């Protein structure tokens, strides 16, 4: 069955290659130059670089392959136009006006408006809308420009109060261009108009972000998949606001015009710009949503009443399109314009000299006045040349296009790179220099008209370019008349890849997406037989795959196990694809619904969730099922195959070697380190508080000290005040833990090769150098020391007195070495005693001990101290027990003393029940497992959710309540031992659980002996996120009050 699937897939690839290479399109395309390509995958991989390097990379390739080249992947064929001659042939034609896939993402808001519609519908809408931008209509919009710009100037002056004021141009300008476009499109101001308008303003911004987010994530291109994502759901909410707002305005506006018999919809062009639409003040029913001046909406309504040229939905589409197109592009242009003028003081001053006399004579700018600013216009055009708001245009060829030297086949996507065209040195000498005189009439006359296309060109050029130029002129004129501009940030230092001008939705960083674009091309090809072969091959492959998954032996067995609703092949794992904050909550909800067993699966992966102690006991007490699951693979780059990650014979050998290291007589040496670090913790808190209370974020504070402890016990090295090397090591451990959590939540990074190419994979590689070099250095020096001393300090380790362990060792002038026993010494002893473990094995186990013993203990302490701070009665009872025992033993805590804290131990166990540090365990079944009611097939992953098991009401009445008396001897006696497994259970249980309990007891004892604890953040409000451990999403603070 496996070979059938493999051969089917190979056959599919072969047929696909033949189709791409030898079909008519493939043969035509092979004649066009381009970067080096490979079969099927093409050459788009050339642009798989970090986002900040993408545009420089694109411009570099543009220069190399000027004036024309191809990019392709699978069935996607893109042609990059860089020469005005070729651009003219494409853009002046009325045959090639179809937009590319990019514009599909705007349709949820704009539907089929002027920007997104195609062919016949676009031509009809263009005809309707063209009069709306007639000279005599635009004069009414200029009134809005004046009002909004005066508002902008006034707000700046009020904020500055006569002094200078610094502004982030993007945020500041965008707010005002959005106000302008809303008033001109719908006649409605967004300033101080209540909750509805505030929601609308935010919805416009959020929708734009969702479009950019979707565009660079090809897996969200299908509408169905995107709608299931959190961003898709967010977009849906914004669309309700956007559409309901515009529909409400449109309906009321239509109702108003119907009520006035449409008398304000006649002779628009004859209305004086000083009184445009002002006659209707009384008739507007005192509706504050309506302005007294003309809006694009009124023009569209007039068209709808004049021969039904457009319906109400069409009006909504065009109003929304005008909102979208006229808002962000203008803001982006203004940002660069103002930055350039701030940089070039001479240009700024010359514009001011031109604007000043006109505005002193009449502060209200009209169209005729705006035409008196020739130098300003040249400066604006030069800014558009350097930084065009829309730097790429896409055209989808519905039929062949013959250029001067090449034939382009139907189905291709044409990319017109405006940025590169505008910096072509053939037409623009010294193209990176800002020079407004390039646009003097005598220089324009001799220049190719398609060498400058900031508003596109040809039939599908920007319909609102005159509107945009008027708006920009008004805003710049008012600003320079009222203010001097000085740069705070240097424009030359800006990374264009993230400036809003160079829009993120035009990135090429999306390789798999092009299969969707190519599909539209395939459907137009006349080679139907080839198409059907290619189409049927993946269908056959999917059918065979489904049969294998569903009706193979493993599939037939798994079919009997309950599950959340699943789909063929993809299964049901997608139901758990939520953000980290809600993932565990989603999982626990499913645990309750499908208790005591259910499966989660996708393709060949199947995870069986075991929730009943009886089933868990069958799995965990056996020595047959000790292989760890896939998640532990993420730890191997650091831990290799240490005790945590190894399996089979190696695990058994290592377990046998390490078990004596946690013998009672060995642990007593480690307790000395625990005492020392706990005293250091208390002293540092007291010094910081200076007799008063001190507030600490438990996660950060406790983690620092548990890391110190584990480093001393594992390697005999303290990280306190030991220089740069140890500081790097501490940071590397924290950062590595983050990279593991990041990778684990992203299955596409489970492949080592793919992960190694990611930025996080590269970061992890750097961290591993630090981690491995540190531990290897210590191990080598420690081995050398023991060899020089003839191993005399490695004999009879268990009999050595805990007060003088290594006391005979000379200082050796090496501050890296401590005089007390470390796990490393025990491993070296094993390596010298019969070669039971080699040097690499020592490194694996030391690193494993560092990883397992650091974060888990810190997490357990955070929850324990948080619970004790919440439950004052419990805290006081522990304190009384601790104070009594410590006074009786002269404040020295040894193993024997720590065993005299029965109530503290019950409290810690109850804390670990409610919040187990390791909340889940995985086992990989290498052979079938028979449970009471189900057979689990080999190859499955068993998932033991400790958190849910510990809250099973069958074994824990009122499971959410903190009750230490659950662990009284008489209550433990009748309970299933596998209903409480904070340290796992069976042969593969946690080897260091006694060490961990000693550490927890000792640190809690020292803290409660010296401090009262009070909660700052409410424990009931904590948020837990999916991580390696049961981590807190936000800081959790506790107040430490010194006991005097």
From TrEMBL:
Cofactor(s) listed in the protein's UniProt record: heme
Residues spanning the signal sequence: none
Pfam families linked: p450
Database matches in PANTHER family: CYTOCHROME P450 4C3-RELATED (PTHR24291:SF189), CYTOCHROME P450 FAMILY 4 (PTHR24291)
Cellular compartments annotated: Endoplasmic reticulum membrane; Microsome membrane
Protein name in UniProt: Cytochrome P450 4C1-like
Domain of life assignment: Eukaryota
Keywords, sorted A to Z: Endoplasmic reticulum, Heme, Iron, Membrane, Metal-binding, Microsome, Monooxygenase, Oxidoreductase, Transmembrane, Transmembrane helix
InterPro entries reported in the protein's UniProt record: Cyt_P450 (IPR001128), Cyt_P450_CS (IPR017972), Cyt_P450_E_grp-I (IPR002401), Cyt_P450_sf (IPR036396), Cytochrome_P450_Monoox (IPR050196)
Membrane topology: Peripheral membrane protein
UniProt xrefs under SUPFAM superfamilies: Cytochrome P450 (SSF48264)
Family label: Belongs to the cytochrome P450 family.
Any one cellular-component term (Gene Ontology): endoplasmic reticulum membrane
Binding site for heme: 990
Known function: May be involved in the metabolism of insect hormones and in the breakdown of synthetic insecticides.
TM region positions: 467-484, 505-523, 529-549, 594-612
Gene3D superfamilies, per database record: Cytochrome P450
PROSITE patterns: CYTOCHROME_P450
GO molecular function, one term: monooxygenase activity
Lineage: Eukaryota, Metazoa, Ecdysozoa, Arthropoda, Hexapoda
């Amino acid at each position: 069955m496996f070979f059938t699937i493999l051969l089917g897939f190979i056959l599919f690839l072969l047929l696909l290659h033949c189709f791409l290479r030898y079909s008519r399109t493939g043969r035509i395309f092979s004649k066009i130059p381009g970067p080096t390509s490979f079969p099927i995958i093409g050459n788009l991989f050339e642009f798989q670089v970090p986002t900040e390097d993408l545009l420089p990379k694109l411009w570099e390739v543009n220069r190399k392959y000027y004036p024309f080249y191809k990019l392709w992947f699978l069935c996607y064929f893109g042609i990059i136009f860089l020469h005005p001659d070729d651009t003219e042939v494409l853009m002046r034609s009325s045959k090639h006006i179809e937009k590319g896939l990019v514009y599909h993402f705007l349709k949820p808001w704009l539907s089929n408006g002027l920007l997104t519609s195609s062919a016949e519908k676009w031509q009809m809408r263009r005809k309707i809308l063209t009069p709306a931008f007639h000279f005599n209509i635009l004069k009414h919009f200029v009134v809005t420009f004046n009002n909004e710009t005066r508002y902008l100037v006034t707000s700046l002056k009020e904020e500055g109060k006569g002094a200078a004021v610094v502004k982030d141009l993007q945020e500041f300008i965008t707010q005002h261009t959005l106000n302008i476009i809303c008033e001109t499109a719908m006649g409605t101001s967004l300033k101080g108009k209540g909750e509805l308008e505030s929601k609308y303003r935010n919805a416009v911004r959020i929708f734009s972000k969702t479009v950019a987010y979707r565009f660079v994530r090809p897996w969200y291109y299908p509408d169905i998949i995107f709608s299931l994502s959190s961003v898709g759901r967010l977009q849906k909410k914004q669309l309700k606001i956007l559409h309901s707002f515009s529909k409400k305005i449109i309906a009321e506006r239509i109702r108003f015009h119907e009520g006035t018999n449409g008398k304000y919809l006649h002779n628009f062009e004859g209305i004086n710009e000083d009184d445009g639409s002002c006659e209707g003040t009384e008739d507007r029913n005192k509706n504050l949503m309506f302005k007294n001046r003309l809006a694009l909406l009124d023009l569209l309504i007039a068209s709808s009443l004049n021969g039904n040229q457009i319906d109400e939905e069409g009006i909504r589409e065009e109003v929304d399109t005008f909102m979208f197109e006229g808002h962000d592009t203008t803001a982006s242009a203004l940002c660069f314009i103002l930055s350039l003028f701030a940089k070039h003081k001479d240009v700024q001053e010359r514009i001011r000299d031109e604007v000043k006399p006109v505005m002193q004579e009449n502060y209200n700018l009209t169209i005729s006045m705006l035409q008196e600013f020739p130098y300003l216009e040249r400066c604006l055009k030069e800014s558009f040349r350097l930084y065009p708001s829309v730097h790429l245009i896409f055209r989808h060829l519905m039929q062949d296009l013959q250029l001067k030297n090449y034939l382009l086949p139907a189905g291709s996507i044409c990319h017109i790179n405006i940025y590169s065209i505008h910096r072509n040195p053939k037409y623009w000498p010294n193209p990176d220099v800002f020079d407004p005189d390039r646009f003097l009439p005598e220089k324009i006359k001799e220049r190719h008209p398609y060498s400058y296309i900031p508003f596109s060109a040809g039939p599908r050029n920007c319909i609102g370019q005159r509107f945009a130029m008027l708006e920009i002129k008004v805003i710049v004129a008012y600003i320079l008349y009222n203010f001097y501009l000085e740069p705070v940030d240097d424009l030359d230092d800006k990374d264009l890849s993230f400036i809003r001008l160079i829009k993120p939705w035009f990135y090429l960083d999306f390789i798999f997406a092009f299969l969707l674009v190519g599909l539209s091309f395939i459907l137009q090809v006349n080679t139907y037989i080839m198409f059907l072969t290619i189409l049927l091959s993946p269908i056959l492959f999917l059918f065979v795959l489904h049969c294998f998954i569903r009706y193979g032996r493993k599939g037939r067995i798994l079919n009997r196990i309950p599950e959340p609703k699943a789909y063929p092949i993809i299964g049901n794992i997608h139901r758990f694809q939520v953000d980290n904050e809600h993932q565990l909550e989603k999982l626990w909800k499913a645990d309750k619904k499908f208790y005591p067993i259910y499966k989660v699966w996708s393709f060949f992966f199947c995870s069986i969730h075991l929730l009943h102690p009886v089933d868990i006991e069958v799995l965990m007490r056996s020595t047959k099922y000790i292989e760890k699951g896939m998640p532990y693979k993420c730890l191997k780059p650091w831990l290799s195959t240490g005790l945590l990650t190894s399996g089979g014979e190696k695990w058994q050998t290592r377990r046998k070697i390490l078990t004596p290291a946690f013998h009672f007589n060995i642990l007593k040496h480690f307790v000395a380190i625990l005492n020392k670090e706990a005293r250091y913790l208390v002293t540092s808190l007291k010094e910081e508080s200076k007799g008063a209370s001190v507030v600490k974020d438990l996660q950060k504070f406790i983690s620092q000290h548990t890391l110190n402890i584990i480093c001393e016990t594992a390697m005999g090295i303290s990280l306190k005040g030991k220089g740069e090397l140890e500081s790097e090591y501490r940071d590397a451990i924290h950062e590595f833990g983050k990279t593991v959590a990041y990778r684990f939540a992203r299955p596409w990074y489970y492949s080592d090769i793919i992960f190694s190419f990611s930025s996080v994979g590269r970061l992890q590689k750097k961290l591993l150098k630090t981690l491995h070099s540190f531990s290897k250095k210590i191990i080598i020096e420690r081995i050398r020391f023991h060899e020089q001393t003839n191993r005399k300090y490695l004999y009879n380790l268990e009999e050595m007195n805990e007060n003088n362990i290594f006391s005979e060792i000379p200082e050796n002038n090496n501050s890296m070495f401590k005089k007390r026993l470390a796990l490393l010494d025990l491993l070296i002893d094993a390596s010298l005693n019969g070669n039971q473990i080699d040097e690499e094995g020592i490194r694996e186990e030391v690193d494993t001990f560092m990883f397992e013993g650091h974060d888990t203990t810190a997490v357990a302490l955070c929850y324990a101290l948080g619970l004790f701070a919440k439950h004052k009665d419990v805290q006081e009872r522990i304190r009384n027990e601790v104070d009594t025992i410590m006074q009786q033993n002269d404040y020295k805590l040894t193993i024997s003393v720590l065993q005299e804290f029965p109530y503290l131990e019950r409290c810690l166990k109850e804390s670990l029940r409610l919040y187990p540090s390791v909340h889940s365990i995985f086992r990989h079944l290498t052979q079938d497992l028979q449970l009471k009611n189900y057979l689990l097939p080999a190859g499955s992953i068993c998932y033991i959710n400790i958190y849910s098991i510990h809250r099973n009401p069958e074994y824990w009445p009122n499971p959410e309540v903190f009750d230490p008396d659950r662990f009284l001897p008489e209550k433990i006696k009748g309970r299933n031992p596998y209903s409480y497994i904070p340290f796992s259970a069976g042969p593969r249980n946690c080897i260091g659980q006694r060490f961990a309990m000693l550490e927890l007891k000792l640190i809690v004892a020292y803290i409660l002996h010296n401090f009262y604890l009070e909660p700052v953040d409410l424990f009931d409000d904590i948020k837990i996120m999916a991580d390696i451990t049961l981590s807190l999403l936000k800081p959790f603070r506790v107040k430490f009050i010194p006991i005097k």
